[in-house]
Amino acid sequence: MIYRLGDFHFPDAPARLYPDTPGRPWMLEIGFGDGRFWPHYAPTFPETPNYLGVELSGVSLLKAHRRLTEAGLGSGLLTKLPADVLLRKVIPHGALDRIIVNFPDPWPKAGHTEHRLLRAPFFRLAASRLKPGGEVLLTTDHDEYFDFAVQEAHASGVMAVQVGPPPAAALETKYAQKWRDLGLDAHHARFTPTAHAPVPHGDLRPYPEDESTVPHAVLTLPATFAPTDFDKVTVRSPHGTWTVILLDLYGSLRRDGWVTLAHVVEGELTQEVLIGITGREDGTHLVRLAKFGGPIITPGVKAAVGAVTQWLEAQGAVVRHRGY
Ligand SMILES: C[S@@+](CC[C@H](N)C(=O)[O-])C[C@H]1O[C@@H](n2cnc3c(N)ncnc32)[C@H](O)[C@@H]1O
């Protein structure tokens, strides 16, 4: 099953995600590629564990979905997100039995190590989301990244490291086969939490049923308001936690109103959201986050509604109410 960010709760719960098997072990695979690992790994358990796979590539997501469905593993959940966002926002504290990372992108060039997944902050986040006795399994062909990950795990102060042979299924992935054909060996390590400091989930919620709680503003536009031009607007939070870029403004042919397209970046989470500016019967206009695309309400998305409101104020609008 494919889940979008908006399909999750923040944090979510196995009882909701796997209603038929909530008590089974919960395993997260990061960067599942074309999905070959799980159909080899799942049958090594007496009962299929609950599976969640996270991947950045949309093409890989579709390939893996087909593979899991064909293997009768369609109850596993796949999502296209950065792993950090999923772990931080969706996975509750102390919930996962295992986090599996096979052949992560090595970012081999000097100066690119900050792009690597397995750095100390990742290990601290992973430790807070694993159950007592849980573990992170890493398999990689890349000598330097392997040593780097082991050092980062030690530096995190919350992980013990054990080096050993990889599970057989990790040697069946596309990248395992690719490196084997080149004569390269795989390294494997098991990282087990020794302590954990709780890493907060953050302020984030799905689009609510009750639209009155959606970020919005009510304002009166000047009688002359008829935009023919729109320059991109960029707003950054004072603490650098979000950036909002208002990219464009579109007029509605059917209704008295417009729609703004906003790009919202908060750490690794990026959302493109629409913010409507719609005429109301009393002559005022409602500025409100649109439901289209399943946006998640975050501080940055609220700020985007604020940025549209402020842009309208700069055009002469008078704000009657702010709800963001
Ligand atoms: C080298 S490939 C390995 C794929 C697969 N595990 C295999 O062994 O064939 C690394 C994968 O990790 C994914 N990836 C990289 N960074 C990620 C992140 N932050 N969150 C989720 N997936 C990520 C990439 O899109 C890519 O598909």
What is the radius of gyration?
Answer: 23 Å
What is the name of the CATH superfamily of the largest domain? Vaccinia Virus protein VP39
Biggest sheet features: 8 strands, mixed
CATH architectural name of the largest domain? 3-Layer(aba) Sandwich
H/E element order: EHEHEHEHEHEHEHEEEEEEEEEHE
Q: Which strand order does the major sheet show? A: 1-4-3-2-5-6-8-7
CATH topology category name of the largest domain? Rossmann fold
Helix amount:
10-25%
Bound molecules: S-adenosylmethionine
Distance between the termini: 33 Å
Secondary structure topology:
Elements: E1 2-3, H1 14-17, E2 26-30, H2 37-41, E3 50-55, H3 58-70, E4 77-80, H4 83-90, E5 96-102, H5 120-129, E6 130-140, H6 143-156, E7 159-163, H7 174-181, E8 187-193, E9 205-206, E10 216-220, E11 233-236, E12 243-251, E13 257-266, E14 269-279, E15 285-289, E16 296-297, H8 299-314, E17 318-323
Parallel strand pairs: 1-4, 2-3, 2-5, 3-4, 5-6
Antiparallel strand pairs: 6-8, 7-8, 9-16, 10-15, 10-17, 11-12, 12-13, 13-14, 14-15
Helix pairs in contact: 5-6
Residues 30-33, 54-57, 60, 82-83, 102-105, 117, 173-176 line the site of S-adenosylmethionine.
